[in-house]
Inverse folding.
């Protein structure tokens, strides 16, 4: 990676920045005493977990903090020498979009839904270069779209944001940011909402752009993989303060602060499990599952989406099968079919000697006890109005377990997932995300299921918490011995926890096999593409050594 | 194993919860207080004013408001103030009963529509049709066909509100049904009726309470309009609608016969509406988002 | 796009059918014989028999229903009991004042309530916001006829600025028509304005919280341009929807307003018909109003198809 050019004057100079929170919260400042520089043609990564103050810093630089809530109370922010904390509203309007621009996390909501994308890019020019001729604006928009490698700019500039893919939308945002060659581009988690392969392309785009644009980039991320891939300089934040900073080579390999080390260690790496001998009979056998969504589009054309296309696999007792793939590949639909939240069009789900795809309501009740699900979002998967104890006891009691026994079992399970017994009488909102996911796991285990279907169970959690929850899954499986279908978009996580893995793409299971075999010698082109896109190659893959 | 670290609070949201909480309770207190006062005035009408609302005084016709007759007298010399207070008893009852009836029927139908596709298809067509008919017209037609009495007036007003409640409840059921925690309970094998009562219905309560409050206000207004148009309760019964209707022919000579009862009625409805807004702000977490809006 | 519009039109048909069905059963709510109800109190036995035969009222209910639907579909809404004129002609004769009145009220609302709501949202939680919201709640709470009488008391009886009764067609005498229309349009518009101001405020507030508004600011838009160019076009969709739904409110308001100001429109016809128990007219009017409601909302649906790119593609 290139070292920053020895430019004497940084384009962005943040010194001793303090952003205060309103009173009554658990800390006084969202950001405290933060200082760093951004130079030309340099990518500075601001890394931290949620609540570390990294996004607040970005908003403070743009002077887009919610006015009555957050306030810069100390320090200076100099953009090309000008102090932004002292700038007036009119001056800020002249600078925003012109000398500094921003790319946001969620490109769908960040673009105006009722404005053509060409118009949105052109708006930046119209605001800051009002005397620019229309033809010139148009030419510049086309050049910019070309620059961020949007296909067919002439046609694409006339469409609306909802008509293009997530990656293309993010390219539009970047084109908008580049429009006036600003000194500084702030990118706030620009790839978090995107699929891995798209994420890799966008990151590559950022790197490439700096070879012929003169801007500096302040990139905010929670992902050390991203840092390893693109950063020239790293600033690690925690609870609003800088923990450490330096070139990535130093911070990533020889972190001086234990927190940084903990974060880096928590980043999932490829680490394969020892092979287990195949069992005599599978616990679950899925064959030729098919589910097609049909909708009539507004133009009258029939649209067919193959959510599941001829999906077949088995899970052995005690085995964990991973299903990996990008959004829209049909992973979640598969989970919903196994739980019979959704009815497959055809195919069989053989489980305990019965075909669940054809099971009656009565059979289904018994089936539902034996196959349990853990959902992605721990904030939404517990009834906010009920005690944790009620949520845990409800299922077993309904299947005939005496109340006392169910309560004892629940308390034992809470203990097992690392929560105290007093958790029974508390409400979900009193727990953190990681704790809630533990409760959800305990709720699933309370039914003594044979199979657990876990749909992206850790992707809503911070990395450090992620590692803990994964560890919990491992430990529970050793102690209790259930089979698991583990759905994830993160191949590194899959390698840690899955005995075998299946790769899904557009509703099809393109390949399935032992995790190590698949990831080391991928047979399908799509699998290779996924593997190449995994961020953080520079972090090393510990398990492979 | 160490516990997962607690996630930091979202500062903006927490601030809003505390800061705006005070402002919200202020609307609740204002609305509730005003309503309580007006309702008490009506309920204790016989103690507040000694005059008989029905007593005709040929020599005190169309008297302007003074200390004896606070709101003046009507064309028969009856005390308008006393009539307004006593009339409030009937009007408030109509408001409460209609809103309660509409809420009960609408919730039941909405829940059914939310869980059964077949019921939903039928119910939503009827709801669309009912909503296409102006509610006042429907109520007027029903009362005039069936004859004016408490039951017909309350039902006529309620029918117009039922579709709104049905839509509200159905909407909540359809959204909440997809929440992972409801899915999770379904996955535990909880049967549908229990699922509805235990996991879905509680989410309907807050919007229902708000809607019901606004329906009470609308129903009080509807009774007044029915009376004003001459299709309400029999004229001998003092209700706000009837009092206003009696003022019509003499309005040019004695404006107080309409202005005072009208303002009293308006104040009551206003209080109910403020109460409803206060409840909505307090109960509807969607408002928490508005803080983002301030530049 | 054409297909989409056709689809919207097709979706409106069942609504009309349901309304017709409701009106059909409405008449059977009356404890008496529907033929007697339709013929009126003074009808001769021959009249009753004629109606009974025409609508097949002596035959089973499904047959009655089919006959009735057929009559309605052919535009045969029956004959007024009192004037013996066809209901449709009576309604047609009264259309002009009502439409002029409603038009003025809608224009007033759009010109006043939408900007007020947007300003309230922009200055969220300030005194401007509070005043607009307070006026809106008050507008909801005070019955239209009380507002009408208050306006008469103030502007007609005390100040003698505007006439308090009657209607002059703007096609005959625009100036006199305008003077006659001021108070009734205001009266009719109050509830509607309260509703629209409220909805405008909340939908602008919602939109102002969206990410693309932040993007607009990050691009260097000045605040005024953020509001007009980015927020309002996106907030317009719920506002237009509510204007459509609010037509029902407007129709109820028309009945009351015309009755207060003695304007010979469809609303007054409704009240006269109800009080005279002239049920063929009442039936026809309910159907007519429902058709207007469905028509307006259909129009709005079609406007969406044209205006909102997310629906169009």
């Amino acid at each position: 990676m290139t070292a920053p050019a020895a430019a004497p004057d940084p384009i962005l100079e943040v010194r001793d920045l303090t952003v205060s929170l309103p009173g009554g919260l658990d800390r006084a400042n969202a950001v405290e005493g933060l200082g760093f520089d951004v130079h030309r043609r340099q990518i500075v990564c601001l890394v931290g977990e949620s609540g570390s103050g990294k996004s607040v810093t970005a908003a403070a630089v743009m002077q887009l903090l919610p006015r009555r809530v957050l306030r810069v109370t100390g320090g200076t922010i100099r953009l090309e020498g000008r102090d932004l904390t002292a700038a007036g509203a009119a001056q800020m309007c002249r600078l925003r979009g012109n000398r500094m621009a921003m790319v946001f996390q969620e490109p769908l909501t960040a673009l105006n839904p009722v404005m053509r994308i060409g118009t949105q890019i052109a708006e930046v020019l119209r605001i800051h270069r009002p005397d620019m001729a229309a033809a010139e604006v148009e030419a510049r928009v086309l050049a910019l779209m070309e620059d961020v490698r949007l296909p067919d700019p002439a046609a694409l500039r006339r469409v609306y944001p909802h008509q293009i893919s997530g990656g293309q939308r993010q390219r539009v945002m970047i084109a908008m940011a580049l429009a006036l060659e600003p000194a500084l581009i702030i990118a706030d988690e620009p790839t978090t909402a995107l699929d891995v392969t798209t994420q890799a392309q966008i990151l590559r785009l950022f790197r490439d752009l700096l070879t012929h644009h003169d801007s500096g980039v302040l990139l905010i991320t929670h992902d050390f993989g991203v840092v390893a891939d693109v950063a020239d300089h790293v600033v690690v934040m925690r609870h609003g303060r800088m923990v450490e900073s330096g070139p990535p080579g130093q911070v990533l390999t020889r972190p001086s602060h234990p927190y940084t080390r903990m974060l880096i260690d928590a980043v999932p790496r490829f680490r394969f499990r020892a092979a287990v001998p195949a069992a005599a009979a599978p616990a679950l056998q899925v064959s030729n599952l098919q589910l097609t969504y049909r909708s009539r589009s507004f133009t009258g054309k029939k649209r067919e989406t193959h959510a599941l296309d001829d999906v077949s696999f088995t899970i052995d007792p005690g085995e964990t099968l991973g299903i990996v793939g990008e959004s829209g590949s049909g992973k979640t639909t598969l989970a919903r079919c196994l739980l019979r939240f959704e009815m497959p069009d055809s195919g069989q789900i053989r489980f305990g000697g019965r075909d669940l795809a054809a099971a009656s309501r009565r059979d289904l009740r018994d089936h539902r006890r034996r196959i349990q699900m853990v959902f992605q979002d721990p904030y939404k998967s517990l009834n906010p109005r009920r005690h944790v104890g009620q949520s845990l006891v409800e299922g077993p009691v309904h299947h005939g377990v005496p109340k006392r026994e169910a309560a004892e079992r629940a308390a034992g399970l809470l203990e097992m997932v690392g929560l105290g017994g007093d958790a029974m009488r508390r409400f979900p909102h009193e727990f953190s995300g990681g704790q809630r996911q533990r409760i959800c796991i305990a709720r699933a285990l309370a039914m003594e299921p044979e199979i657990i279907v876990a749909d992206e169970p850790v992707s809503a959690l911070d990395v450090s918490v992620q590692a803990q929850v994964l560890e919990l899954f491992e430990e529970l499986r050793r102690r209790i011995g259930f089979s698991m279908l583990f759905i994830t978009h993160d191949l590194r996580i899959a390698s840690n926890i899955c005995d075998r893995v299946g790769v899904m793409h557009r509703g099809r299971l393109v390949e399935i096999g032992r995790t190590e075999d698949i990831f080391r010698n991928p047979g399908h082109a799509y699998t290779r593409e996924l593997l190449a896109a995994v961020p953080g190659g520079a972090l090393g893959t510990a398990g492979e050594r | 194993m160490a516990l997962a670290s607690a996630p930091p609070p979202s500062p903006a949201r927490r601030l809003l919860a505390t800061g705006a909480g005070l402002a919200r309770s202020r609307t609740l207190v204002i609305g509730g207080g005003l309503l309580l006062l007006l309702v008490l005035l009506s309920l204790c009408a016989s103690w507040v004013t000694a005059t008989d609302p029905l007593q005709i005084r040929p020599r005190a016709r169309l008297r302007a408001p003074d200390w004896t007759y606070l709101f003046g007298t009507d064309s028969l010399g009856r005390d308008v103030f006393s009539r307004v207070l006593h009339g409030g008893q009937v009007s408030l009852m109509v408001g409460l009963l209609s809103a309660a009836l509409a809420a009960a029927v609408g919730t039941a139908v909405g829940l059914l529509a939310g869980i059964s596709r077949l019921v939903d298809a039928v119910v939503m067509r009827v709801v669309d049709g009912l909503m296409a008919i102006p509610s006042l017209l429907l109520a007027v037609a029903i009362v005039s066909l069936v004859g004016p009495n408490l039951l017909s007036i309350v039902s006529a007003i309620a029918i117009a509100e039922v579709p709104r409640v049905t839509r509200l409840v159905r909407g909540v059921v359809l959204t909440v049904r997809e929440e992972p925690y409801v899915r999770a309970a379904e996955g535990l094998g909880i049967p549908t009726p229990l699922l509805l009562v235990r996991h879905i219905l509680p989410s309907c309560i807050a919007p229902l309470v708000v809607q019901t409050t606004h329906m009470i206000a609308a129903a009080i207004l509807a009774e007044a309009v029915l009376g004003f148009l001459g299709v309400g309760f029999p004229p001998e019964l003092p209700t706000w609608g009837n009092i206003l209707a009696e003022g019509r022919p003499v309005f040019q000579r004695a404006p107080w016969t309409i202005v005072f009862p009208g303002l009293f009625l308006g104040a009551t409805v206003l209080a109910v509406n403020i109460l409803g807004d206060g409840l909505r702000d307090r109960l509807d977490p969607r408002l928490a988002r508005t803080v983002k809006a301030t530049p | 796009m054409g297909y989409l519009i056709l689809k919207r039109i097709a979706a409106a048909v069942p609504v009309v059918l349901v309304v017709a069905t409701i009106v059909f059963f409405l008449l059977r709510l009356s404890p008496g014989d529907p033929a007697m109800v339709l013929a009126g109190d003074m009808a001769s036995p021959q009249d009753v028999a004629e109606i009974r035969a025409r609508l097949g009222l002596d035959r089973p209910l499904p047959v009655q229903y089919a006959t009735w639907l057929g009559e309605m579909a052919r535009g045969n809404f029956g004959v007024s009991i009192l004037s013996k004129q066809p209901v449709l002609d009576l309604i047609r004769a009264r259309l002009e004042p009502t439409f002029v009145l409603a038009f003025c009220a809608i224009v007033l609302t759009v010109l006043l309530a939408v900007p007020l709501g947007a300003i309230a949202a922009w200055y969220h939680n300030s005194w401007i916001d509070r005043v607009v919201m307070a006026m809106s709640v008050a507008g909801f709470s005070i019955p239209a006829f009380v507002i009408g009488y208050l306006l008469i008391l103030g502007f007609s009886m005390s100040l003698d600025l505007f006439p308090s009764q009657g209607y002059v067609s703007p096609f005959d005498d625009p100036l006199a028509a305008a003077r006659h229309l001021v108070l009734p349009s205001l009266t009719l518009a109050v509830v509607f304005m309260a509703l629209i101001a409220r909805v405008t405020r909340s939908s602008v507030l919602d939109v102002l919280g969206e990410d693309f508004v932040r993007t607009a600011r990050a691009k260097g838009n000045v605040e005024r341009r953020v509001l007009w160019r980015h927020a309002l076009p996106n907030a317009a969709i719920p506002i237009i929807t509510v204007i459509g739904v609010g037509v029902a409110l407007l129709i109820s308001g028309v009945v009351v307003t015309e009755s207060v100001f003695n304007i010979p429109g469809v609303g007054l016809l409704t009240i006269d018909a109800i009080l005279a128990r002239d049920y063929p007219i009442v039936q026809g009017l309910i159907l007519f109003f429902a058709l207007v409601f469905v028509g307006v909302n259909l129009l709005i649906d079609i406007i969406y198809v044209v205006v909102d790119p997310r629906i169009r593609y």
User: Anything to note?
Assistant: The first helix of chain C runs from residue 2 to 27.
